[in-house]
Design a protein that fits this description.
The protein has 418 residues and is an alpha/beta fold. The protein has 14 helices and 24 strands. The strands form 6 sheets. A 4-stranded mixed beta sheet has the order 22-23-1-24. Helix 8 runs parallel beside helix 10. It is elongated. The N and C termini lie close together (5 Å). It binds ligand EPZ.
């Protein structure tokens, strides 16, 4: 398994472009199951999760090709509706085939995704939504078995916002008979991107990005083309990379409006952040305060930037109370940061970070999940000496060529092939 060696001490400076959003690309890929024909997506990031999703779509009878960030998916008419465990277990987002398969074939057999490092990741809200749309749902031998004569529009109220649940129901409702309302819907930009694509396919989705989404079912959808929105989490990670090293970094090809929560917190800590059209710049800063964050659904502080922000707070001149209110176990990176001499006291969902500016020291550490791996690379950028991050396949799941992007900004980062 590859490792990443990071030498600390270099200030990062310059411009770097954000890639397309992983968490938009994945639902868009599965939405293609709603319509036969050739779907074309541009600005698609070159990630392990995209490759895994292609394998699942090919298992379901589709043809896919990927070149120069353009992804083509040809959906045939064949009735294959099983997503097997050995594919789903590698990537939880595979559960997003449930809605499209049920809507198009009125039947689906999808492996339960199982948990992951950051939490149990249940799908009860997905299944309750499908039942509300008229599906018979059974769970047997680790698989969700779903059947329906035809999905019927319904009013669905999520007890708490769920990104995947909102996406799954939106896709299922697109071909249901009648009108569906999703209340307490997730409001992430990736939800809006998916709704825009469903509408390009001939669907009728209104209100995406707000807490009430209305979907008018149609009889048929058709393949279309779409440019994936920029990855706000990668953009935020790169901004923090500039900030933590005291450099000046501009992230281009991104949507500053999608980064408001992070930008607000970095400004509160003392960073000067400027925006200009589709770019955001963090200006050089010699010292910053500790600030508190609580992760919440969009537009709050994103849980996917919590670990990266914690690395930044390790270098602050104060104390930061970090509350992870979305996932129950998303502090796996804390003990690894402590190996780098960080001063962090983790509790159940709260971690108190005491800034030890300039005191991080390099050491071998282990990535446990996608965003934890990014956090450890960021800490390595400022730790004295060398930090070697193992299991960086986690990083490759969600960041396209991170070492090339950081090296281009002046970091000393190299991949160690096992
Ligand atoms: C999406 O996961 C993202 N993944 C995650 O990004 C992100 O952290 C998360 O949304 C929150 O923003 C993709 O988009 C592929 P949720 P998802 O359903 O849809 C609970 C990354 O690093 N819940 O919004 O699985 C759940 O346990 C990944 O890129 C239920 O209880 O997240 C969690 O506590 C990690 N029952 C909370 O809701 C359900 O049926 C939010 O989960 C579904 C969710």
């Amino acid at each position: 398994m590859d490792k990443m060696a990071v030498k600390g001490g270099n200030r990062l400076n310059g411009e770097v472009a954000a890639s397309g959003a992983k968490n938009s690309t994945l639902p868009l890929m599965f939405a293609t199951l709603l319509a036969e024909g050739e779907h074309v997506f541009t600005n698609v990031p070159d990630l392990l999760d995209v490759t895994s999703s292609r394998q699942l779509l090919e298992h379901l009878g589709c043809e896919t090709s990927y070149k120069d960030h353009t992804l083509r998916i040809f959906v045939r008419g064949g009735k294959t509706f099983e997503a097997p465990y050995d594919i789903v277990r590698k990537m939880r987002a595979s559960i997003l085939v449930l809605g499209p398969l049920l809507a198009r074939f009125r039947e689906a057999k999808v492996s339960l995704p199982g948990g992951c490092a950051i939490g149990t990741r249940p799908i009860d809200l997905h299944l309750e939504g499908m039942k509300a749309l008229g599906a018979d749902i059974n769970v047997e031998a680790g698989y969700v078995l779903a059947k329906t004569s035809r999905l019927q529009g319904a009013k669905i109220l999520f007890e708490s916002p769920t990104v995947g649940g909102t996406e799954n129901i939106m896709m299922a409702a697109a071909l249901a008979e009648g009108e569906t309302f999703i209340e307490n819907a997730a409001k992430e930009p990736e939800i809006v991107d998916l709704a825009n694509y469903i509408n390009k396919m001939g669907g009728k989705v209104e209100g995406a990005g707000s807490s009430i989404i209305r979907i008018q079912g149609v009889d048929r959808l058709r393949a279309a083309e779409h440019k994936v929105i920029p990855d706000r989490i990668e953009a935020g990670t790169l901004l923090i990379a500039g900030g933590i090293t005291g450099g000046e970094v501009t992230v281009t090809d991104c949507h500053p409006a999608d980064l408001e929560a992070l930008i607000g917190k970095m400004r509160e800590a003392g960073f000067k952040i400027t925006t200009d059209g589709d770019s955001v710049t963090v200006h050089s800063c010699s010292g910053w305060k500790g600030v508190d964050i609580t992760t919440t659904p969009h537009p709050g502080f994103p849980t996917d930037l919590q670990a990266q922000f914690m690395a930044l707070m390790c270098q602050s001149q104060g104390t930061s109370v970090i509350t992870e209110a979305v996932f129950e176990n998303r502090f796996m990176h804390v003990q690894e940061l402590v190996r780098l001499n960080a001063d962090i006291t983790p509790k159940t969902r709260v971690a108190v970070v005491r800034g030890t500016r300039g005191k991080l020291t390099g050491a071998p550490v282990m990535a446990t999940d996608l965003r934890a791996s990014a956090c450890l690379v960021l800490a390595g950028l400022v730790a004295e000496g060398e930090t070697v991050v193992s299991r960086i396949y986690h990083l490759d799941r969600g960041y396209e060529n991170m070492e090339r992007k950081l090296t281009g900004l002046g970091a000393q980062v190299r991949r160690l092939k096992d």
